[in-house]
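Shapes recur. One chain:

:::
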Amino acid sequence: MPRQVLFIYNDPIAPEALLGETFTELGFDVDTFEVVPAKRASDPVVHVTFPDPTRYDVIVPLGSRWSVYDETLPWVAGEIDTVRRAVDAGVGVLGVCFGGQLVATALGGSVQRSLAPEVGWHRVNSSDPDLVPDDGPWFQWHFDRFTPPPDAVEIARNSCATQAFIHGSAMGLQFHPELDHKLLELWIDDDRNRGGGDLVKLGLRADDLRADTTTHVDDAARRLRRLVRGFLDKVAG
């Protein structure tokens, strides 16, 4: 029977992208759950009933333009509980950016505004290259960062933030291994619609992000396959 993975959309513009392709290649059936449907994207204050995580082999909370500590998001508490239930049951949990911050919070860590936000392709230093290959940069777009939970093992970091940790059957990532060109354009368009806030604030140009992505995305997709295999073998397994 095929293994099952659930991707949790915490934002309509943050789908699974290359992560979906990778899990499919590894024989998983893919399911998705929209916390905030696209039609409610500008009004995220909604009641949410999350799927039972124990129906799945892996759940993947994805990114979001919002913050885990945003008190206008009443569904965050329900997702935190879902993550805890998954880890308690031994279900694999792979949190990505906002999702990684949510996993950190669920397991006793914390999230705070970063003094050194990262947008673009940035190197990380890994103590476990089977889990986080560090032979190339990973894409980042974050203004918050997490402190890993007690008893977690930090497995990657750079000068700006902890970039990955493991705790039981969970792994939290600060970077975006799922990024492809289509996803980048969604984020650039959203930033432009908000007045170019993030890129202007950091003195970045959209065309430079596009060019860097063309340079790095194929190799990053190869490293993503290694990351997911390592997660399945050493964490979720």
